[in-house]
Automatic annotation (TrEMBL):
Keywords: DNA-binding, Transcription, Transcription regulation
An example Gene Ontology molecular-function term: DNA binding
Name of the protein in question: DNA-binding transcriptional ArsR family regulator
Domain HTH arsR-type: 1-95
Short name of one Pfam family: HTH_20
InterPro entries documented for this protein: ArsR-like_HTH, HTH_ArsR_DNA-bd_dom, Metal_resp_trans_reg, WH-like_DNA-bd_sf, WH_DNA-bd_sf
Species of provenance: Methylobacterium persicinum
């Protein structure tokens, strides 16, 4: 993953409100949530939700799809997995795991 994209995604998730919105979408699963249902779950005004969704969409963490008159929001799970992987893939690589307890 590109470090610039990871930084933008982490910055987008750095807002408590956006993190709450994103977690609600992740929890909803692949069917996503209509905007009105998402608004009810997170308890924020529509204009505020729109602002926060826009930031999440710009970073590729969320997509929207129009179904007739309803706007459905979904978490982009491959993007989420990529970001989480970016954070943990190199965990403890410099530590040389297992060497500290070995006898010489």
């Amino acid at each position: 993953m590109d470090i610039e994209l990871a930084a933008r995604q982490l910055e987008a998730l750095g807002s408590p409100t956006r993190l709450k919105v994103y977690r609600a979408l992740v929890r909803a699963g692949h069917d996503g949530l209509p905007v009105r249902g998402l608004q009810q779950r997170v308890g924020i005004p529509a204009s505020t939700l729109s602002h926060h969704l826009h930031r999440l969409i710009l970073t590729g963490l969320v997509v929207q799809e129009r179904q007739a008159t309803t706007l459905i929001c979904r978490a982009v799970y491959p993007a989420m997995r990529s970001l989480v992987g970016f954070l943990v893939d190199e965990c403890c690589l410099d530590e040389q795991c297992g060497r500290a307890g070995e006898a010489a």
